Amino acid sequence: MTSTAEAEQLRRALDDFAGTTPAAPLRMERILWAVRRRRARRRAAGIAAGCGLLLTPLALLAGAGGPASTTVSPAAPRGAAGPRIVGPGEKITVGRGITMRLTEDGRQCVRQPGEIEPFCNRVAGPGSGGANKFTLSWDQNRRAILTGSFGGTITPAQVVVRTRSGSYEGRLVTLAGRPDWGAWYADAGVSDASPADLEKSPAFLRSVTLYDANGEIIAGYVGTGPEPNAIGGMSLQLTGALTGTPESP
Amino acid sequence: MKPVLDDDGDFAQFATTRWNRLLRIAYMLTGDFHDAEDLVQITLVKVCDHWRRLPKAEIDLYVRRALINNHRSRLRKRRVTQFLTSLVPEPAHHGHTETAEHRVALVQALDSLTVRQRAAVILRYWDDMSEQETAEILGCSPNTVKVHTRRALAALRAHPALAAYAPILTGEMP
């Protein structure tokens, strides 16, 4: 049973802890900007859904009346198309709610669902040290999404991710005129592990392999590590580094 | 200045008056100031987005519920590698407890609790919420709140970090 004195002691201890909170201004303009963006996104999604509903019957009718010999070209292998070239700051949607941008000063910025500020990793330029890393996370559809970066001596032509559920090819992204560094992303399908089961990440992800233009392995990650980082007993999202001498995946 | 959203005046007043308290709750929940600031901002964005439909009489309960739910959701999706350093910055003034080590011990002990236990303790013992209000915020029954609180206090009493913090929660009242 909690005594009144004990409750008072705890209250004072918590009060003391709360009193150490650094002062921070309320940034109302940022909150209102984020709200406007959420509403605009919802409106756009509603319009897209409405257009889809209107156009689907038309497409079905057109398909039923079209020539029988119409062929559907198979999806081209994504890696064959080469890296996707983007402009500095251009938004790349890599999963539902996860976006990535490359900046002119050599950073790869990834914004996770629900976050206002993206997390930026310096890949090229002064102070870089973040090249050849990757992050595994889950998007809002519970799909496993990998985002990574490359630079230095490693310039891949293809990225392949192997998970417990299969192999997936990633997509390389570079800035126009800057093939020496860049990023990649891969959708590794729906994971049976919930985001709460991040401890299972190493078991879920079998390997990440980067190949050069000749099909030779130039970097990779294999196996059961790295261990998820822990803080306060909570598991964090899996991050890993790609080495130049991976074992055969 | 851009045109404001509908009802923004009300919301701005609400956010301004609640900001400091919410920031402190978030800081006690997360143990990290930057996380706390982020958490309160995200929560206020969501609250503002639904502002017109929210029952204003229960807005304080709603915003705390949103804060705790967002905190739990963020824990599930954490990405950034962090390192445990000194958990609490040096205070500008001395409070009721004697030293910064005591606060570090308290933070370590709070870290050993589950999110719901930690939230229950903060809401009940710092935010002065009743059992009924805490239950509404956590989305459970008052009896469950009692259980969370009892287990949290037991864990705090038993935590080795609090051994040096004897007067608090060890039953050795001064």
Helical residue percent band of chain A: 10-25%
Mean pLDDT of chain B: 78
Instruction: Determine the number of helices of chain A (DSSP H or I, runs of at least 4 residues).
Output: 3
Oligomer: heterodimer
Shape of chain A: extended
Largest interface by Cβ-Cβ < 8 Å: A-B, 54 and 63 residues
The dominant shape of chain B is globular
* Portion in helices of chain B: 55-70%
Rg of chain A, Cα atoms, Å: 23 Å
Q: Which strand order do you get reading across the main beta sheet of chain A?
A: 1-10-11-7-6-16
Cα distance, first to last residue of chain B?
57 Å
Radius of gyration of CA atoms of chain B, rounded to a whole number:
17 Å
Mean pLDDT of chain A: 73
Alpha-beta classification of chain A: alpha+beta
Number of helices of chain B: 7
Draw up the topology in text:
The complex is a heterodimer of chains A (249) and B (174).
Chain A: H1 4-18, H2 28-65, E1 84-86, E2 92-95, E3 98-102, E4 107-111, E5 119-122, E6 133-138, E7 143-150, E8 158-163, E9 166-169, E10 171-175, E11 178-190, H3 201-204, E12 205-211, E13 217-222, E14 230-231, E15 234-235, E16 238-241
Parallel strand pairs in A: 1-10
Antiparallel strand pairs in A: 2-3, 3-4, 4-5, 6-7, 6-16, 7-11, 8-9, 8-12, 10-11, 12-13, 14-15
Chain B: H1 8-30, H2 33-49, H3 59-76, H4 100-111, H5 115-125, H6 131-138, H7 142-158
Overview of this structure, please?
Chain A has helices at residues 4-18, 28-65, 201-204, and strands spanning 84-86, 92-95, 98-102, 107-111, 119-122, 133-138, 143-150, 158-163, 166-169, 171-175, 178-190, 205-211, 217-222, 230-231, 234-235, 238-241. By secondary structure, chain A is an alpha+beta fold. In chain A, the strands form four sheets. Chain A has a six-stranded mixed beta sheet, with no helix packed on it. Chain A has a four-stranded antiparallel beta sheet with strand order 2-3-4-5, with no helix packed on it. Chain A is extended and about 75 Å long. Mean pLDDT of chain A is 73; it is low at 65-80, 195-199 and 225-237. With 174 residues, chain B is mainly α. Chain B has seven helices and no strands. Chain B has helices at 8-30, 33-49, 59-76, 100-111, 115-125, 131-138, 142-158. In chain B, helix 1 (8-30) runs antiparallel to helix 2, helix 1 (8-30) crosses helix 3 (59-76) and helix 5 crosses helix 7. Chain B is globular. Residues 1-5 and 79-97 of chain B have low confidence and may be disordered. Chains A and B meet through helix 1, helix 2, strand 6 and strand 15 of A and helix 1, helix 2, helix 3, helix 4 and helix 5 of B.
